User: Fold this.
Amino acid sequence: MNIQEINHFCNGTLISHLGIEFLEFTETTVVASMPVNANTMQPLGFMHGGASLALAETVGSAGSLFSIDTQKYIAFGMSISGNHIASIREGLVIATATIVHRGKTSHVWDVEIRDQDGKLISVARVTNAIVKK
Assistant:
């Protein structure tokens, strides 16, 4: 799939409801953006930590999905942990997932979420189980 097809595939899911848009992917990285708006904020006007984790899991899970034979396997999120480094009230955040471990039954991705100026907002680690269908 190309980027346009991937974004279309996500229509009607949490991914599209949060405004997450895939920007690029390679064998080792996945990059996506998410707006900081009413859909991704907590009541005090800052980006919600859960929205950050949803973005991180989205790019980490997509990286695994893009690198397996989807006719034979499926990737399931097993674990996610994150640290929120800074807050953001508006704009766009960009998540970059980088593969740390690509095994036969598990993948581990490190994710950095930054604002448009490159300021680090959150970091996360996503672990996926790779399971035979």
User: Anything to note?
Assistant: The mean pLDDT is 97.
